[in-house]
């Protein structure tokens, strides 16, 4: 399986050289920016999108806030599970990094000695992006664009073949979508319990937001409202 990319004439290798060739023509400062974005920046950006979406959901205080927050919580969990699934895949395929088999690549990050297929970065960002898309379409679309751009940068940096990235996208998407029903069935009751908590309920719904008609009524609240109505009529 290690010979997946031994031939320099296959489209995977050709595309690798075409994309990585852009790094050779770019100024050094631009490559440094791409290196940071590819290693940390895009992942951080998607994490911030998840946090922004969570903040928006809890502030809005919709009746289905618990299920929405549960779906949002699945995004990072899906990424973690996808990386664990990738461990045996990498060990089975045993594909070396492209710069070990092909000369003349502009490698922006040194010290990559693990196997290349499937890309962990591509797996993580796509799993989080798909999980976020399930929770919120608007934020999810932005995250999907960032994930695709992140995969492009991994090839640009010379540390992955295009098929490494495509495999990561497929793995992240599969885990986030296929396990979503089970995850929601487990996470939603937990989030609903958190929502009812007086101490940590703010995690699901901002304080002062109505929790919907199905929530418990505070003792004495009904009688106070009734008394206020009677006083208004008397006036």
UniProtKB/TrEMBL annotation:
It comes from the Bacteria. GO terms for molecular function: hydrolase activity. Its main location: membrane. Residues 69-180 form the Phosphatidic acid phosphatase type 2/haloperoxidase domain. It holds the Pfam family PAP2. Keywords: Cell membrane, Hydrolase, Membrane, Transmembrane, Transmembrane helix. It is found in: Cell membrane. This is Integral membrane protein. One of its GO terms (cellular component) is plasma membrane. It comes from Streptomyces viridochromogenes (strain DSM 40736 / JCM 4977 / BCRC 1201 / Tue 494). InterPro entries: PAP2/HPO, PAP2/HPO_sf. It is a multi-pass membrane protein. The chain crosses the membrane at residues 40-57, 69-89, 115-134, 141-159, 165-187.
């Amino acid at each position: 399986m290690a010979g997946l990319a031994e031939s320099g004439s296959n489209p995977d290798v050709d595309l690798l050289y075409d994309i990585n060739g852009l790094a050779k023509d770019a100024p050094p400062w631009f490559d440094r920016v791409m290196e940071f974005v590819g290693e940390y920046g895009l992942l951080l950006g998607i994490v911030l999108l998840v946090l922004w979406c969570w903040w928006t959901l809890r502030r809005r205080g919709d009746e289905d806030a618990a299920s929405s927050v549960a779906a949002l919580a699945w995004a990072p969990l899906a990424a973690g599970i996808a990386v664990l699934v990738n461990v045996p895949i990498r060990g089975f395929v045993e594909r070396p990094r492209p710069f070990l088999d092909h000369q003349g690549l502009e490698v922006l990050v040194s010290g990559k000695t693990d196997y290349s297929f499937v890309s962990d970065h591509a797996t993580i960002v796509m799993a989080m992006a798909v999980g976020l898309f399930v929770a919120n379409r608007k934020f999810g679309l932005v995250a999907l664009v960032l994930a695709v751009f992140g995969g492009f940068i991994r090839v640009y940096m010379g540390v992955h073949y295009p098929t490494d990235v495509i495999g990561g996208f497929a793995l992240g998407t599969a885990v986030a979508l296929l396990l979503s029903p089970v995850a929601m069935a487990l996470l939603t009751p937990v989030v609903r319990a958190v929502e009812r908590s007086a101490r940590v309920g703010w995690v699901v719904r901002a304080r002062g937001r109505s929790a919907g008609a199905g929530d418990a009524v505070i003792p004495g609240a009904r009688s106070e409202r009734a008394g206020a109505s009677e006083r208004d009529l008397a006036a």
